[in-house]
Description:
By secondary structure, this protein is α+β, with helices and mostly antiparallel strands. It has 2 domains: 2-58, no CATH class; 63-119.
Amino acid sequence: MFYYSASTNAFYGAKFPSGKLPSDVVEISDEMHKELIIAQSTGSKISADGDGNPIFTKIERSFDDWLDNVVRPRRDAKMDEFDLHRVNRCRRQIDQGQTPDDDLSVLLAYMQDLADFPTTLTEIVDQIPWPAEP
């Protein structure tokens, strides 16, 4: 058994302390919870109907929405996660005549590949390997 709250748009398990549940929760079956989670994982949005019961709505996304909401954030996260300290340490080691821990050219190429990653439809289409005309 689960509970759904329209005000928080969240599910709560049966073991959640009842005194801490939002006041608008409605009880839903395990089966309904599973259906909603599967729908959400395949691109639907969970929201509440007029009575506060959870429903799912299929989201039709344009390609630009997909780029804005999926591709760019993933690329940006990878750029943020990349450890620039590795690049700086490698440069410092080279400057000091030491053998670097990493290959600087590989690190710089990776950074450039991320920066050049296509984030518009035109850029993606331009990179399609079209067959050569005979």
